[in-house]
Each structure stands twice: as structure tokens, then as C-alpha cells.
Design a protein that fits this description.
single chain; mainly alpha; about 65% helix; globular
Length: about 400
Amino acid sequence: MAQPSDPLLPETRATGRLYFLDNLRIALTILVIAHHVGQAYGPTGGAWPIQEATRAGILGPFFTVNRSFFMSLFFLISGYLMVMSYDRSRPLVFVKARLVRLGVPLMAFFLLVIPLQQYLCHRLTGDLGTMSFGRYYADCYFGNGQPPAGWKGLWPEMNFGHLWYVEHLLLFSLCYALLRTLRLRLSQTDVAQARPPRTWAIMLFVLALAFASATIRIWYPIDKWIGFLGFIQVAFADVPRDLSFFILGAVAYRRQWLLSLPNRMGRIWLLLGITLAALWYVYAMGLRQVLPISRNTMGIVYPIWEALLCCGLCIGLLYWFRARLNRQTRWSQALAEGQYAAYLFHVPVIVLIQYAVANIALGPFSKFLFVTAVGVPLTFLLAHGIRHPALVRKVL
């Protein structure tokens, strides 16, 4: 039997850096920013400081398609890079690095940035009168005053806002380090013998993921967030997908799936993911009026569609970025370096822009496009400025 070809790309062999993963994370961060911009202008079930009276219906399927794959792809990439990082350092060094890079921003946002952000939003809308930030902070965390909607104070539930992803990533990383310490290790696979997963195996995973998601959503529907154990901010409806993709990322590093994925396989899954996304847009924007699907049937169809779309876009985008964007320019390097800080700080940036354009006579979709176009570069510029001090760069 012929041996698989060398899966290492020329750029990877030369530098050891997977530029396509850097570029993919930049694209996903931009998509996250756009997703949160749309919270003010589209039909969403989530809370957001700025709420337009009229809504752009086209953002409904935009939200649905996004939430079906983009955070899971973030987790897959994070799982892949986590194992790489662990293998290149000692266990205690790895744990310390995770606590610094993930834990420090979590606590900084929880203790200062998020309450300050909430306070400014309430001040802009005139809800707080002359209340000082100190009084507001005390009410949110320690007192019996009137904290912002959805804020549960320090206990019993900690509120990390959009940093729930960072919190989960920290917990997953620490659990992985514990397993490695206990010597329950994933088997090492030689790169020369690496083989991508077979199509039948992916389809079995799709069905298992769909079943797990449909089952857990009986008790925990989409967008239901709870404070599990008081400090884990979690939407259980998405845990089967996000956790399984994080684990797949760890396995993908061992078996070199990202580098050995055949181009033909990547193109097929990318086409499948795009087709499923397009079908949802067509259905949500009008076809549902012609061919309505009952709630019980949708309870079966939707989890399968979601799992297929997630696998299709995750596999397909990894292939496409590897094939087309496995290179780095000066600009993409700067964006990659600021990607994490942009993810952390994008919410206050876009909320301020949304507030500034709130009274401008534009439709909701036009405002969505404008705020996204302005908010993305401003967020990355802010990220670049925040990272300038050497001490901050060690964290961000």
C-alpha cells in the first residue's frame, strides 16, 4: 500500500507556524464581532444594551448559521493548539501559562471591565440618574440595590459576558493537563502514518452529535444560560457540540488531520456546509411560509442540519484556509497578534458605535453594515494599542 504523502505544508516546514490557523481565527473573530453587532438590529433572543425598534429579518438566519458552527470551530482550533503547547512545555509551565493568558482576563473583566461597561451603558440611557460608579459597583456585587438586568452579582452566579468561551477553554485546558498528569495520554501518532477520518466515521459523529444535542435541549433549550456550580457560565444546549469539537481538535493534532486532509474531501465538505447554510436562508426568508415544518419534525431535522452544517463548514474552512491563506503578510501578522485582545474588547467598542448612530435615520440592516465596517478596524486598532506595553503582551 502506498504511503501517504508528507502532510506538512512548505510554509509550515519552513517556519513551524500554521499561518492558515492564524488567518482563520482572524476571520472567526470578525464574524463574532459582526454577530454581536447584529444583536441590536436583528431578531435575536439575547439581551443587548442597544435595541432598535425595527429589526432586519435577514439577520435571523445569519444568527442561526453563525451559532451553528463558529464557536465550535474556535474550540477545535484551540484544542489543536493546546496539545501543541502542552507538548512543548512542562505541565506546571503549561498550567501557569493558561492561568495567565485565560484566567487573568477573566477576572479582570469580571471584576472591572464588565461592571464598568454595564454602568456606562446605563448612564448613556439615563437609567442611573446621578449614581456613581462606586455605588453602582457595590450594588452589583455586594449590596441589595438594583443591578443591571441579567446581572446576578458576585454570588451565586458569576457573569463573564461574552468571555464564557475563555472560561470554558480554561476549564477544558486544566482538565486536559490533569489527565496528562495522571498519564491518561492520547496515543502518539507518527505524522507519516497520519490518515484523515473516513467519511463514514464523520457521518456517525454527525448522528451522535445530533442525538446528543436534541436530547439535552429537551431540558435546556437554545440560549438558556445558567451559572453551573455558581461560576461556570454555560448554555448546555451547545455543550455537546463545543466540547466534542475541542476534543476533536486535540485528536486532530495527534493524528495530523488538519495537514493531511485531502483537498477533494475538504472541497466536498465545504460545498455541503455552504449548501446547508444557503438552504436555511431560503427556508427562513420565505420557504417556511410555503412548506411549514411542524415543531416535532423540526426537533429532529434541525439537530441533524446543525451537526452536518457544523462539520461541513469546520472541515471546509480548515481546508480552504490551508489551501488559499497559509501565508502571512505584515498586516495579517498584526491582526493575528491582536486577535485575542480584539475578541476580549470588541463589545464596548461596538456598543459605543451603536449608541452614536442610534438616532441616525438608517434602516436596521444599513446600521448593521455600517457599525460592522467601522467597529472591526477600530476594535483591532484598540487591540493593538492595548497590547503595546510589554507586560500586557505577556497576557494578550
